[in-house]
């Protein structure tokens, strides 16, 4: 299917931090891995949740997660500078976007699409996750404009990166 589609946000992506307005998605842009822009934080899950065929990064997460980690390293410093300059309001949107990267990486690393509705139940059973990930994620999601949330996000991304590369090494060792 080609062209732009107006897709509703699937219930699995409902969360107060992210809006629930329908999104217009260029379907052919998401038939292969393409880094999502800030306007549509979970485009692959949007397609999947609406029954539209598209690339599923949770099936083969190596390249998507590497790209996310690379993008995070670029964004981390600019977010840090916003907080250092006491621009917490301005940090809100970049934090929201970075949270979508963390959530995507965490879910995809465990082989499933992002599910914000049942975050505690879904992510609680993950084989690969940072220590106290659920509590820390809930804290960040509830107050993304706080500097302490940024610190937690940075630490979670760092821990997730270590676990990602450890998981890759173990998979490569088995094959």
Q: Can you describe what's shown?
A:
The protein is mainly alpha-helical. It has helices at 43-49, 62-84, 88-109, 119-124, 133-142, 147-174, and strands spanning 4-7, 23-26. The protein has 2 domains: 4-49, no CATH class; 62-174, no CATH class. It has a two-stranded antiparallel sheet.
Helix content: 40-55%
Structural class: mainly alpha
- Could you list the spans in which at least 5 consecutive residues all have pLDDT below 50? none
Number of strands: 2
The largest sheet has its strands arranged as 1-2
Mean pLDDT: 94
Query: What gap, in angstroms, lies between the N and C termini?
Result: 35 Å
Shape: globular
How is the main sheet built?
2 strands, antiparallel
The arrangement of helices and strands along the chain is: EEHHHHHH
**Cα-atom Rg, whole angstroms?**
16 Å
Continuous helix count: 6
Strand content: under 5%
Number of domain units: 2
Short note summarizing the structure:
The protein is mostly helical. It has six helices and two strands; from the N terminus they run E-E-H-H-H-H-H-H. The protein has two domains: 4-49, no CATH class; 62-174, no CATH class.
Task: Furnish the topology, listing elements before pairings.
Elements: E1 4-7, E2 23-26, H1 43-49, H2 62-84, H3 88-109, H4 119-124, H5 133-142, H6 147-174
Antiparallel strand pairs: 1-2
């Amino acid at each position: 299917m080609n062209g732009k589609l107006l897709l509703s946000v699937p219930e699995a992506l409902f969360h107060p931090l992210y809006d629930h307005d329908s999104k217009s998605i260029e379907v052919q842009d998401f038939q292969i891995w393409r880094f999502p822009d800030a306007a549509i934080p979970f485009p692959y899950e949007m397609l999947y949740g609406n029954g539209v065929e598209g690339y599923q990064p949770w099936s083969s997460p190596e390249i998507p997660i590497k790209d996310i980690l690379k993008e995070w390293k670029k964004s981390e410093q600019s977010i840090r500078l916003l907080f250092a300059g006491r621009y917490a309001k301005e940090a809100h949107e970049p934090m929201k976007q970075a949270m979508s990267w963390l959530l995507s990486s965490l879910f995809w690393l465990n082989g499933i699409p992002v599910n914000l509705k049942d975050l505690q139940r879904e992510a609680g059973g993950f084989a690969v996750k940072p220590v106290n990930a659920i509590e820390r994620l809930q804290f960040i999601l509830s107050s993304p404009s706080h500097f302490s949330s940024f610190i937690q996000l940075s630490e979670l991304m760092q821990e997730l990166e270590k676990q990602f590369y450890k998981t890759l090494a173990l998979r490569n060792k088995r094959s």
